[in-house]
Write a sequence for this structure.
């Protein structure tokens, strides 16, 4: 018995000592903790940081087409408050915007205008097709309506609904943010700004 | 007149051509107007519409009557129940339905007047925002959200309710919904006073709206303006009073009018209309009759769901109505109704089948645009936005 | 003046130009007027019968009903001061659908008459600014004619990146209406 007990005691003492040392070390670290973060150096791609910044400051163009535009306005209002996701700064000029929310049906007459506005937006830029009409033509399958705005501009997120509620549009914005973050630093994101 | 793309580059003229829209935050949609400017004064204004042309009239010729109702929602998307009502009234007249159950009419009235208040709130918010008063926009949308919640409660959708159907309404109102409407009715007068306290005596608002965009009674009639624009010019004309439909003659309400016919008067008329609409809703709630919420003629409206399991006749009616739709006798009809922006009505030609042969919307915004552009002539460039806001155009019904 | 009196006066003045008339129980007077006398009737209505408000103008294409004449133009007129309601139907022949403008009587006729040209291809003589209103300039055909296809397109969810660069389908790509 004797040898074994001695060994166990020794180990226990050793562990206690280690714990004490660790606590001391931790206390020391805690004292310098806040400073340590600011002094530390992280290595990442600049593209990732830029993407992270872009995702949190989407500036949509004020581009209301039809019924969905009213729900888009509702999204910007106090009850739904798109500002929580950094997407409330609606810009009247496409040159200051990086997100185009195609809110409503796109007619054959509007399609060239829409294309021009899209071209006027600086890269990088994203498009949300809001509602059934801009996603696929909706209930208006006829001579006048473009059957989906993806015939005219590339679309990143489709939000279904007729019209989608503000919460659905917010979900679309969040999905777009996830997409931007995922793409950040990748070849695709590089092509956008190249 | 006759401004072309090339004209934008001409430099040998005294005037400057300015393009406004179709992507412009203050044109309330995709309206485009080409302004011929002499300094800051607008010489001519040439409208260009059609950027939201949806082909609804053509599509309706290939859809059954019931399928047309959701499309009417998307015409004037700020007050959809009034479009539903105008369409259903016309179809009912063609069908020869003289009278609906009182409860159906009252529920229709409540929905329409909620729609009117909701529409006027959007108008007030955006109009004030265009002129520079941001706060009203946020306040007006706060109350509109209550109306949208009520819409969602009764029909499942926030905006495009399609609640009014041929022969009645889609489903009965629940007590919870009626409680909700009553809460809204009690809540809204103080809020309308709040908007008024922000605008009615605001010197900036007065400067921007008084004596601007003036249209006399005779001009307004000649240019086929309707609704609040006509009433602001001093003509006491409201289809709810002149040809009462949907039992509007049961309710006591005033038709507000003003004399000058400028932007400020239109503002006053619309704000007062919100109060009157609230009065109508209150009376409709107080006197809401019991009884069926749609007609019991199963050739027109669906039989109750629970009878399908017990009654062969109901099953056949249900099958016929769902698979084939309502057959409307030959003829044509037009029923004028008072929408939020003026006279709304559908001219429907039927060839006896289950689809409309021709469906035409009389849209107040569409008829109002030439007159609006006439108001712009001689006005300052800054007033163009105020004039557009005061007519309250909705491009959905302009381009159809 | 009641609807009855208006109808009698018009029939006395224009005789056989009023081809058909009826009165509804909703206070509307419906008149079918021959094209030759149409403008004279409208002028009389405006100047002598106080019809001061033009509510709307509708075109109807009766191609599928096999009717002579093929087209109908419907005018909705009110007297807001005297509270009257009248509806005028004018038939237009298929080979040369031309109708005189009433823009000089009611300024509100501006847009609806342009729409008649745009959607049906009617020539409206005497209108100051006759060109397409809703459809883009250079559009072929007049959509509300019954022989114009609705152009139902098979809905395809496009993941094809090449496809996105195309602007929109051209008129030639349009397939015939599968519902017809």
């Amino acid at each position: 018995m004797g040898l074994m007990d001695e060994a166990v005691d020794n180990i226990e003492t050793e562990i206690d000592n280690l714990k004490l040392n660790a606590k001391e070390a931790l206390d020391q670290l805690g004292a310098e903790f806040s400073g340590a973060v600011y002094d530390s150096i992280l290595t990442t791609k600049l593209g990732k940081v830029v993407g992270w910044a872009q995702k949190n400051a989407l500036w949509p163009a004020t581009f209301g087409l039809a019924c969905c535009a009213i729900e888009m306005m509702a999204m910007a209002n106090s009850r739904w408050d798109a500002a929580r996701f950094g997407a409330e700064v609606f810009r009247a000029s496409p040159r200051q915007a990086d997100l185009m929310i195609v809110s409503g049906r796109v007619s054959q007459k509007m399609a060239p205008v829409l294309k021009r506005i899209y071209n006027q937006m600086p890269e990088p830029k994203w498009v949300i097709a809001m509602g059934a009409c801009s996603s696929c033509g909706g209930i208006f399958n006829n001579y006048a309506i473009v059957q989906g705005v993806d015939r005219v501009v590339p679309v990143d997120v489709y939000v279904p609904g007729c019209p989608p509620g503000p919460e659905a549009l917010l979900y679309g914005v969040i999905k777009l943010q996830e997409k931007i973050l995922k793409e950040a630093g990748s070849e695709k994101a590089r092509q956008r700004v190249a | 007149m006759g401004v072309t793309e090339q004209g934008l580059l001409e430099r040998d003229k005294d005037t400057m051509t300015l393009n406004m829209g179709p992507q412009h935050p203050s044109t309330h949609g995709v309206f485009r107007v080409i302004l011929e400017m002499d300094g800051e004064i607008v010489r001519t204004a040439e409208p260009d519409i059609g950027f939201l042309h949806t082909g609804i009239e053509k599509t309706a010729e290939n859809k059954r009557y019931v399928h047309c109702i959701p499309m009417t929602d998307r015409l004037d998307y700020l007050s959809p129940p009034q479009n539903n009502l105008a369409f259903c009234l016309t179809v009912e007249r063609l069908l020869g339905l003289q009278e609906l159950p009182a409860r159906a009419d009252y529920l229709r009235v409540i929905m329409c007047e909620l729609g009117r208040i909701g529409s006027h709130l959007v108008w007030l918010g955006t109009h004030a925002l265009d002129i520079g008063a941001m706060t009203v926009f946020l306040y007006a949308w706060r109350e509109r959200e209550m109306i949208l919640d009520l819409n969602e409660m009764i029909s499942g959708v926030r905006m495009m309710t399609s609640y009014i159907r041929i022969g009645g309404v889609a489903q009965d109102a629940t007590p919870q919904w009626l409680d909700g409407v009553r809460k809204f009715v009690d809540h809204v007068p103080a809020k309308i006073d709040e908007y008024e306290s922000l605008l009615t005596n605001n010197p900036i608002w007065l400067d921007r709206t008084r004596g601007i965009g003036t249209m006399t009674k005779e001009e307004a009639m000649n240019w086929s303006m309707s609704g609040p624009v006509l009433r602001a010019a001093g003509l006491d004309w409201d289809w709810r009073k002149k040809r009462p439909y949907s039992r509007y003659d049961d309710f006591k309400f005033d038709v507000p009018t003003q004399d000058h016919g400028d932007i400020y008067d239109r503002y006053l008329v619309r704000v007062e209309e919100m109060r009157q609409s609230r009065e109508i809703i209150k009376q409709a709630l107080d006197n809401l009759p019991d009884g069926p919420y749609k007609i019991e003629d199963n050739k027109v409206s669906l039989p109750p769901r629970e009878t399908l399991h017990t009654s062969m006749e109901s099953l056949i009616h249900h099958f016929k109505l769902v698979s084939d739709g309502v057959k409307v006798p030959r003829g044509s009809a037009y029923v004028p109704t008072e929408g939020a922006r003026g006279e709304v009505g559908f001219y429907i030609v039927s060839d006896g089948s289950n689809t409309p042969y021709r469906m035409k919307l009389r849209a107040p915004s569409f008829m109002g645009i030439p007159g609006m552009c006439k108001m712009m002539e001689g006005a300052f460039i800054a007033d163009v936005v105020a004039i557009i806001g005061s007519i309250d155009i909705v491009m959905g019904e302009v381009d159809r | 003046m009641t609807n009855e009196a208006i109808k009698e006066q018009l029939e006395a003045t224009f005789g056989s130009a009023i081809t058909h008339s009826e009165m509804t129980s909703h206070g509307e007077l419906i008149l079918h007027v021959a094209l030759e006398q149409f403008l004279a009737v409208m002028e009389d209505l405006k100047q002598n019968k106080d019809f001061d408000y033009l509510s709307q103008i509708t075109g109807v294409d009766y191609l599928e009903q096999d009717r002579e004449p093929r087209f109908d133009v419907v005018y909705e007129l009110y007297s807001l001061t005297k509270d009257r309601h009248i509806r005028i139907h004018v038939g237009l022949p298929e080979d040369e659908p031309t109708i005189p403008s009433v823009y000089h009587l009611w300024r509100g006729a501006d847009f609806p008459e342009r729409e008649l040209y745009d959607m049906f291809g009617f020539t409206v003589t005497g209108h100051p600014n006759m060109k397409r209103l809703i459809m883009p300039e250079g559009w072929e055909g007049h959509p509300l004619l019954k022989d114009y296809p609705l152009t139902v397109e098979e809905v395809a969810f496009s993941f094809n990146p090449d496809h996105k660069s195309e602007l929109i389908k051209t008129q030639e790509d349009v397939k015939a209406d599968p519902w017809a």
About this structure: Chain B touches chain C at residues 1, 49-50, 53, 55, 57-59, 61-62, 93, 221-226, 230, 235, 237, 242-243, 332, 334-336, 343, 345, 347, 349, 351, 357-358, 360, 362, 366-367, 369-371, 374, 399-400 (CB under 8 Å).
